[in-house]
Amino acid sequence: MTATILALVLASSALHPLREFFIKGDATPSGVTLAVVFQFCVLAGIHTWAEGTDPWTAFRVWPAMLVSGLGILFYYWCLVMTLRTGDLSIYYPITRSSPLFVVVVGFLFLGHSYSMTMLAGIGLVLVGAFLLQYRPGSHLFSQPATLILATLAMCTHGVITLADAEAMKEVTPEAYMFVQYIFLTPGMALVFLSTRPPEQSVYQHLFSGWVRRSPRFIIAGVTAYASYYFILWAFQLGANVAAVSAVRQISIPASVLMGCLIFKEERMTARLAWSLILALGVVVIVFSN
Fold first, then answer.
1. In the chain, what percentage of residues exceed pLDDT 70?
2. Residue 275 vs residue 134, higher pLDDT
3. Among 93, 187, 96, residue whose Cα is nearest residue 138
4. Cα–Cα distance measured from residue 249 to residue 115, given in angstroms and rounded to the nearest whole number
5. pLDDT for the residue numbered 216
6. 3-state SS string over the chain?
7. Phi-psi region at 171: left, alpha or beta (left = phi > 0; alpha = psi -120 to 50)
8. From the CB of residue 58, how many other CB atoms can be counted at a distance below 10 Å?
9. In angstroms, what is the C-alpha Rg of the chain?
């Protein structure tokens, strides 16, 4: 993994938790998510125009774009439903454990091979990421439906990662995202409308937060776009899919430091200890190639 790719992945990881925090902390999580998707389309369109890229080149990889797009729709739905009922500190690590899925699928179906060193590093990352935000006394299986949704989100994120990595071999990130999110924006709106609680109006469910909390919604969208773009850029530079997926787990200690230092959350010592284990896994992955 080159220094450039590592920098892109770490930057993406630092920004990524903001989206989940805004979704979890808002009274209209579906509205936040739709705002993020809409901003992806707008920002990617501006980016494509600024770069002078032909956006329709994205159709060269339409099968991968279709798989990724359908995966994103399902992933966001699972994520919103998970965070609506589940504790972020328990279920965020599960939804972010896609390296395990990527490694298994890559080995079984795509002919990928991984050194024992890389597998050991991925294992350290996954163990550290899970134990980092696991709270003693909490019951992981006390909400089986939420656990299933979080696991489905994890697997779907792995599918998205594999599809995006293949697409980036032929197209630019901005063109890919622009065309993809032209279709995803209305698709996401339909998904959330079909699952709208009957006691909420369409405005309350999807759009009230856009007016009342617009700065939060804008920050969620812009940071999520930057995070996703950095990952696609890393794939375009030839990054290893499993390694990138694992290093992205650094978003979990980043969120722990934010919570402990800024929001004064508990168990800082224990969480930083697990962060060191996760960081060791990242170092092993970086030097395994």
1. 91
2. 275
3. 93
4. 20
5. 87
6. CCHHHHHHHHHHHHHCHHHHHHHHHCCCHHHHHHHHHHHHHHHHHHHHHHHCCCHHHHHHHHHHHHHHHHHHHHHHHHHHHHHHHCCHHHHHHHHCCHHHHHHHHHHHHCCCCCCHHHHHHHHHHHHHHHHHCCCCCCCCCCCHHHHHHHHHHHHHHHHHHHHHHHHCCCCCHHHHHHHHHHHHHHHHHHHHHHCCCCCCCHHHHHHHHHHHCHHHHHHHHHHHHHHHHHHHHHHHCCCCHHHHHHHHHHHHHHHHHHHHHCCCCCCHHHHHHHHHHHHHHHHHHHCCC
7. beta
8. 26
9. 18
**C-alpha dist (Å) from residue 118 to 126, 160, 201:** 12, 21, 50
Q: How far apart are CA 98 and CA 263, in angstroms?
A: 28
> The tokens of 4 are what?
């450039």
Whole-model pTM above 0.90? no
| Per-residue tokens: 6 | 């590592």
Tokens representing 154 are: 């994890």
Residue 59 is encoded by which pair of tokens?
């159709």
Residue type, 78: C
pLDDT digits (tens, 9 = 90+) for 180-215: 999 999 999 999 998 888 888 888 888 888 888 888
